[in-house]
Amino acid sequence: MSTGGMASTVRIGVDIGGTFTDVVVVDQTTGEVRVAKVPTVPADPSEGFMDGLEQAFRNFGIDPGAVAFTVHGTTVATNTIIQGKGARAGLITSAGFSDVLEIAYQTRPTLYEINYEKPAPLIARNLSIGVKERIGPDGEVVVPLDEADVAAAALRLRAAGVEAIAIAFLHAYRDPTHERRAASIIREACPGLPVILSSDVCPEYREYPRTSTTVVNAVLVPRVGPYIARLEERLAAAGLRCGLHLMTSSGGITASNVAQQFPVHLVESGPAAGVIGAAFVAQMTSNPQDFGRVLSLDIGGTTAKAALVDGGKPALADEFEVGAAAVPTTTASRGQGYPVKTPVISLIEIGAGGGSIAQIDPGGALTVGPESAGADPGPACYGKGGDRPTVTDANLVLGRLNPDYFLGGALQVDRARAEAALMRDVGRPLGLDLLAAARAVIDIANAKMVAALQFISIQRGLDPREYTLVPSGGAGPMHAVAIAAALGVRSVLVPPTPGLNSALGLLATDVKHDFVRTQFTPTRKCTLERIEAVLGEMGATGRRLLEAERVDPARVEVIEEAELCYVGQSYPLRIRVPADRRDVFDRIEAEFHRLHRELYGFASPSEATMIVNLRVTAIGKVDRPRLRALVRGDGDPGQALKGRRRVDFGGVVDCPLYERARLDAGDRIAGPAIIEQMDTTIVLPPAAVAAVDVSGCLIITLAS
Fold first, then answer.
1. Which domain holds residue 541?
2. Would you say the pTM of this structure is higher than 0.85?
3. Which DSSP symbol is given to 549?
4. What's the CA gap between 168 and 575, in Å, rounded?
5. For a tag on the chain, would you pick the N or C end, based on fewer CB atoms within 10 A?
6. Number of helices (H), then strands (E), in the chain
7. Alpha carbons 583 and 587: distance in angstroms, whole number
8. Helix (H, G, I), strand (E, B), or coil: what is residue 379?
9. Are 77 and 88 found together in one domain?
10. Does 92 lie in the same domain as 196?
11. 121 and 58 part of one domain
12. Are residues 609 and 548 in the same domain?
């Protein structure tokens, strides 16, 4: 990359992780990609955001006025819930249903765990009030809304000091009239108090998930909304005139004003960006057809996130849970967090990352994570006050990390501190020498990540050996080959900037808005006029939002889907509704039977089906970054050799070190080897070979 200033228009992605804040700058004219990485500021993540931007502007000579687009991936919403720092909110619901949050699901994560306790509701029971009203399941008014009841409930909640009020009436997805009238009454009685309606946030059937989603949004609005507004003000003060977009849980991006109203859509913002980034780099290789099936593994400082990508598209789920540390976001075990019923990239998140702390549990076993040293004080080797051993400390002791080239030399790390912490907390208690203790920490961390990848593949009937592993995050490429070997995966694709791949993913996705309306109607009793009216209304709303975001109408795509199930089933499958409406019900039923057979091994074409929901996704297509092609070399990586170091691969070997920035397309490196770059280190064990693709990706092949 050249060192001259970027005078042309640029696009910027900023991803805030638990340990580092990553900035990716893409020149829209040349396709040049530049990166910056700074420590996250946990007390105020916007400080790390601005620090990263300022570093990028300074290092690359960028005029803030030349920035055409800024998009942000953030864990602020997730952390607000996990850390119990959400706003004090109240809930107004139908009379007789004010215990909905207390009752929650009656399932437990582990069937025979007799000491299990459900998470405490986000809204206390005394702040959950029922009012006289009732809408029936077909949208009929059973009990008229008692407006005096609503006003009294609002005044009672305001006196209790709530910062927001959620409204979730029974069957409001069928007819939101009562909710909307109640909101008007509350706004009159309590001016300035945010009011969140279930019919706006989650207009779907299933009372508890709909109420929970609305409540999560309510406790986030007074916290995340001001954060976004503050960030916009700071960007404007810095000279950026492009506004701010944010990554959503479903892998799309949305304007800041929408994100401030519906921060619940940001809960899985950061992890979603990593999956999008993995899918993007796989398609940017010289042979994208070889990488249509991807296992994305994003290992950051605090957590590891795993997801599947098929045909370039991440798998989606319609519901997940937030609120408990190391909870699978696909709700593999219900009851550990708070249900959020919004579209989300289907992934699993575990507490295992570079900063995960290794310790001996009360039973005398070695554990790694979910507790993390985070950015402050960080691993013991950072020398910032942390004295507990982490995965990063173990990698440093094994020689896999260069103490003089951490973050490209921007951060000096202390091997002696790492050794002392490992021996004190792991080695001596277990009777292990230093290297054995470090290997044990790495082995346990890897085992947790292997289990996560097995959960999203093998436990769903998919063979991971048919996929390519794409590691990202600062720690991903250090562990990737060992994890792939344990899964039987034969190839690993390392992105050009793995440690900043989530930030790159922010710039590799589209503006997207999702809409849903519950129908719950037998397919053969649904009329074409009805589905066209519902789909048309949602599509028009999506187009209006995209127009307000200045998306060119020629770049708008509207995807229409129906969710079908057999009568009596609980969970539906999504089926694309064809634009050509001829015989539409025959065609969507036939596609449902085909997909049901593919997923579950059987179908029953003679059984009646139901349309549960109608969905519309309005997409505004944006330009993708273009990875610059590398100069093709002669296959010999000698020009990138920078020295040698003793590295432990189960035994200590004298290992060549390569500088990735000096590698040419076509170069091949046989393990054992270490490949270093500013944002990560690639560990290439014996019997693995890395080839440099023209896209800048490293394609690592494992011996069988």
1. 511-620
2. yes
3. T
4. 29
5. C
6. 17, 35
7. 6
8. coil
9. no
10. yes
11. no
12. yes
